[in-house]
Design a protein that fits this description.
Elements: H1 3-22, H2 24-64, H3 72-95, H4 97-121, H5 124-147, H6 157-166, H7 168-177, H8 179-188, H9 196-215, H10 220-230, E1 233-234, E2 240-241, H11 249-279, H12 284-299, H13 302-312, H14 314-334, H15 340-367, H16 374-402, H17 405-416, H18 419-425
Antiparallel strand pairs: 1-2
Length: about 425
């Protein structure tokens, strides 16, 4: 293509995007389309996420022959998601959501393939390395929630976050409940049964990436930036003066702290629950059922949660998060190991508390940042979330091995209360 043809193509592309800048109706239509496309990708992303969460600890336990390091897979997965969160955030900032999110999901799918190969050749080194790469899918699944907010107004943001998250439920609930099916399928093709869910994870993540790459056009973040630039006005020197307000640093700190603490508590208790159940005679199907309820509670209430966050406020729902996580920790700690009902209730409360914290915290971050730097800031915050999850996963196995599941659950519940004074502090003067 000649330079002249390239210029013409660029001009045509700019003109096609310009219609979204000049028409509020087009903006609303694109907002709805973005939510639809991201929601489809979240169905696949949820299945990929849930598959690894359900059996990762059990696979490591089987390959290593000890419980002490059963939390390492969760730790590596979330540690890998930290680096991926930074990568996806930077790619989104530079090239738009479409590039960042599709790349993250496809990389996560390649990591799942690596886990399958590691199980076949019984290589712990390859398992751990692949789990790091697999974490990219988890990070991308989480960052996809931001895409729905790019064209949302301040009264729609939490609802937009929740709408994209709620569709994760379909895949997230199906994933754990397909553990036995995928395990049997894996055995039928000569692959260890615990690697079966990762076959589902690989296919799901790669499909999510393909959906976003093909359908997320035009890019919502690119359009949001163009709208922001169009709203800039010239100052008395004829230069463009932005109408942006200064970032609310208290809001960013509070939102990040809220999501970091809820992630740490949730990952720690969730990671060791399958091991705790297996020690009390529960089978793999029962483990999948409990984790399925847990992940359902993480995502299914999202649509209602988003409305509540927009109506009642970020602070009220953040306090609700801390209280719910405390109840989850107490229930898990004192539930008899052979009681499926109480373990299901504990894990449902754990997922619900995480849901409250994630949506209210995400809304705080979006409220407190600007379009020009939002994706980069979101990626950085998600790095902290992933690192907190890595710490929770790594420490959980050591705490249980050195003490008990009761100690782990009580500690997590009490830790979650720390977020309440932080969000109350954030209501003070903006800095």
């Amino acid at each position: 293509m000649s330079q002249k043809d390239s210029v013409k193509a660029l001009d045509a592309q700019t003109a096609s995007l310009q219609i979204y800048i000049n028409s509020s109706e087009k903006q609303k239509a694109l907002y709805k389309r973005t939510l639809f496309v991201v929601s489809i990708s979240q169905i696949f992303g949820g299945a990929g996420l849930a598959a690894g969460v359900t059996v990762g600890a059990l696979l490591a336990q089987q390959m290593l022959g000890t419980d002490a390091y059963a939390g390492i897979p969760s730790s590596l997965l979330t540690l890998g998601s930290a680096g991926a969160a930074l990568l996806v955030g930077r790619l989104s900032q530079a090239f738009g959501r479409r590039t960042g999110l599709s790349a993250g999901f496809i990389i996560g799918g390649l990591g799942a393939i690596g886990v399958i190969i590691s199980a076949i050749i019984n290589s712990v080194f390859l398992l751990f390395t692949s789990l790091l790469v697999y974490g990219a899918g988890s990070a991308t699944n989480l960052q996809a929630r931001y895409a729905g907010t790019d064209l949302a107004n301040s009264k729609q943001r939490a609802t937009a976050i929740s709408m994209t998250m709620v569709f994760t439920t379909f895949g997230a609930v199906a994933g754990p409940n397909l553990v036995n099916v995928m395990g049997n399928f894996a055995l039928s093709i000569g692959v260890p049964s615990l690697a079966g869910p990762f076959i589902l994870g690989a296919a799901a993540y790669i499909l999510a990436g393909i959906v976003l790459f093909i359908m997320l056009r035009p890019d919502p973040l690119v359009i949001a930036r163009m709208i922001q630039e169009a709203n800039q006005v010239p100052n008395d020197k004829g230069q463009l003066a932005t109408t942006e307000h200064t970032e609310n640093k208290r809001g960013i700190i509070a939102g990040a702290t809220l999501m970091v603490l809820t992630q740490m508590v949730m990952v720690a208790i969730m990671t060791m629950t399958p091991v705790h159940m297996m020690h009390h005679g529960h089978g793999l199907g029962a483990v999948g059922l409990v984790i399925g309820f847990h992940i359902g509670a993480m995502y299914l209430p999202s649509l209602v949660t988003g409305v509540l966050v927009d109506k009642l406020g970020r602070t009220a729902m953040a306090i609700g998060s801390g209280t719910t996580l405390l109840l989850a920790g107490l229930t898990a700690a004192f539930a008899p190991g052979d009681s499926m009902v109480l373990l299901v209730i504990a894990l449902i409360l754990l997922g619900l508390g995480w849901n409250f914290g994630l949506i209210s915290g995400t809304a705080l971050i979006v409220d407190s940042t600007e379009t020009s730097t939002r994706a980069k800031t979101q990626g950085t915050v998600d790095v902290l979330i992933a690192l907190s999850g890595a710490a929770g996963g790594a420490l959980s196995g050591m705490i249980v091995a050195g003490s008990s599941y009761l100690t782990l659950s009580l500690s997590g519940g009490i830790l979650s209360l720390l977020l309440i004074p932080v969000v109350i502090w954030s209501r003070g003067r903006k800095k």
